[in-house]
Each structure stands twice: as C-alpha cells, then as structure tokens.
Design the sequence.
C-alpha cells in the first residue's frame, strides 16, 4: 500500500457512515451534503475538493469546519504542492484546456493555509469496522487519477483489487459517475462503490448530484453501499461562477445536468445522457 495510507477504527456502535466525492468547489452542493448528513457522526470525502466551481476556500472552510475526514485526490495533491496542472488524466486537447482554466483559477484562489492542509492529506484510507476492512481511494487503489468505469471494468479486476489490498469493499470517486458492483466469489464477497461527485451532475440531464452511505446494522455480515441523489441550490453557485468569470460551459453543465467539458474521456456507453442510478 501507499506510504500515506491512514487507518481509521470505527466504533462498534457505528451503523452508518456518509461518503462524498469530488466537491469541485461547489460550495452549495457541499452545504446541502452537510445538511443532509448532519446526524451522521463519521463522514468522509474522497478528494478533489477544488476545481470547476468558484471560491474554493468556501468549500474547504465548510468541509474542515464540519470535521469531514478527507482524502487527497489528484487535484488536492497538485494544488497543495503547487504543480503546473491538475494531473486529472485527460487526453483530449479541449478537455485539457478547460481543465487548465479550472486549475489555474483554483490554485490562485486557494489560501496558503488550505494549500498546506491539502498537502498533508492521506492518499488512501482503510476503515476498520467490526472485523471488516473498507478501502477509501480517489481513482483506484493503485493510481490516484485512474479512471475506473463500470462498462470497462470486469469482476476479475475488482476482485484483484479486493484481494491485493485485503479489503471487503472499495469506495472511489474520480470518474465522476456513480456505480456499484457487488462481487460474490468463493472465499470472498465484496464491492466496488463509486460514490459520484458533489461538484457536477452525473450526465443524466438532471441537476442533482450524488453521494453515498455505507450501512452496517448490528446483525449484518458487512456494510452495504447505497447511492443517494442530492438536490441543492444550483443558481447560487452558478451566479458566483459568472461573477468570477468562469467559462459558460462550466455553468451550463450545472444548469443542464450534462457534461459540457471533460467528456471525451468517457467510454462510448457512458457518453449517453442517461439515468445512472438506479440502473
């Protein structure tokens, strides 16, 4: 495992945790997530706190003040260490151009205190929970910016991750599209859980975003992943985006519920505007 792995022991009386991914400086969606999960003691964010949206310090303030435990995504690593780009993994020139606009804005508007904090976040986290181990990562357990798509990932690959990292489930976010896969094989059951992102819609033609729960009742064999759609005040964040001079393409994505940028990375099936969950 990575040297920056962090182990967290959850208490035996914990029955549910909340997990979000990719806030992307969408402070309005983050605020809605914090309100929706206010009764949950243990909350986690899988990284990419900045990017795409306006006023990155607002999102960072919200998450840190709420005590949400955060991982370091590729964006957080880049901003924290002052790198030249986000390291998002895009291959299309237009996608890279928009990603650079987003990164340059985010880096310039993230305070030194927050940059230092981002620099120190762990890359991987293992939750130890009543005899079960759940791995939290950003892209994949192996590579922080690896895109793990449901249509291009077979059960054998997920089983390999589960076996090599000796865990019962894996939660990730980097692709931005939510999905769940349960693995049932001799000697080991497990799951892959992409919790989606708070920062932009899931290319469904709908404005809502997603986060997730892991629920582990006292009489259950292990935790169960659950995706949750989240509505939030879109207009507040898009007004701020226009005020900050961010691209209209970013704004259109939130208003229309589709990916208007950074979509060339999507596999053919994922490029279709369709309901992601339930499938």
Sequence:
């Amino acid at each position: 495992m990575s040297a920056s792995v962090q182990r967290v022991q959850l208490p035996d009386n914990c029955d549910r945790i909340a997990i979000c991914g990719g806030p992307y400086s969408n402070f309005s969606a983050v605020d809605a997530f914090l309100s929706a999960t206010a009764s949950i003691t243990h909350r986690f964010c899988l990284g990419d706190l900045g990017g795409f949206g306006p006023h990155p310090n607002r999102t960072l303030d919200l998450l840190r003040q709420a005590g949400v435990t955060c991982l370091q995504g590729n964006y957080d690593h880049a901003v924290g260490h002052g790198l030249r780009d986000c390291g998002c993994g895009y291959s299309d020139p237009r996608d890279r151009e928009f990603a650079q606009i987003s990164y340059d804005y985010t880096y310039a508007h993230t305070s030194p205190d927050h940059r230092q904090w981002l620099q120190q976040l762990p890359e991987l986290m293992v939750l130890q929970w009543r005899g079960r181990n759940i791995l939290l990562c950003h892209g994949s357990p192996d590579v922080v910016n690896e895109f793990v798509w449901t249509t291009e990932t077979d059960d054998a690959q997920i089983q390999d991750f589960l076996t090599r990292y000796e865990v019962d489930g894996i939660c990730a976010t980097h692709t931005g599209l939510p999905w769940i896969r349960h693995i049932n094989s001799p000697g080991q059951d497990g799951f892959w859980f992409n919790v989606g992102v708070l920062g932009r819609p899931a290319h469904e033609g709908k404005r809502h975003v997603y986060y997730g729960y892991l629920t582990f009742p006292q009489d259950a064999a292990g935790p169960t992943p659950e995706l949750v759609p989240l509505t939030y005040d879109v207009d507040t964040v898009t007004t701020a985006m226009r005020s900050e001079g961010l691209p209209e393409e970013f704004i259109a994505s939130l208003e229309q519920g589709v990916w208007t940028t950074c979509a060339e990375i999507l596999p053919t099936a994922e490029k279709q505007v369709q309901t992601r969950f339930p499938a």
Observations:
- The chain has eight helices and eleven strands.
- Residues 74 and 87 are 6 Å apart (CA to CA).
- The radius of gyration is 17 Å.
